[in-house]
Task: structure prediction
Amino acid sequence: MDFEETDLGRIEISEAVIRDIAIHSYIEFLKFDPRENKARKEAKSTVDIDLDEKVDGTKTVKITVNTKIKYGVSIPSYARKMQEKLKNDVESFSGLKVEDVSISIEDVYEEPQKPAVIEEDEPEHEAALPQEASQAVESPVAEEEIEKEEEKKEKEV
Result:
């Protein structure tokens, strides 16, 4: 798309570049690493743009995002913040006016929870052993002391 004619020549910005700016902005909004292939692939299927040239010659951009949101997040607040981020980034990097940013929330997801860790007073293998056996397993030194005491008693008799 022809962007501007200057004394030095013409400046063109391709539609793909505008779309990449919007995709990068979306990935940053989600706080993902823009270099991560999985994030880029998902964002490419989520973000779309439409370039339009008005009768007066001004060029505008419309951005459409079909996304999901984490359960418990305020949808209106989340969507407004996303709109602002995308609009500001595309306008500042391209110089084009963003006329519309449409956010469509298509799904709600929950964060996977970590399984609860149940702590026990004593490990299972020790609980299954008789008291004397568990002491012997825990402390071989204590076992030696018991043997010495038994030897002492035998000598006294």
Observations:
- Strands lie at 2-6, 9-12, 47-53, 59-70, 97-109.
- The chain has six helices and five strands.
- The radius of gyration is 34 Å.
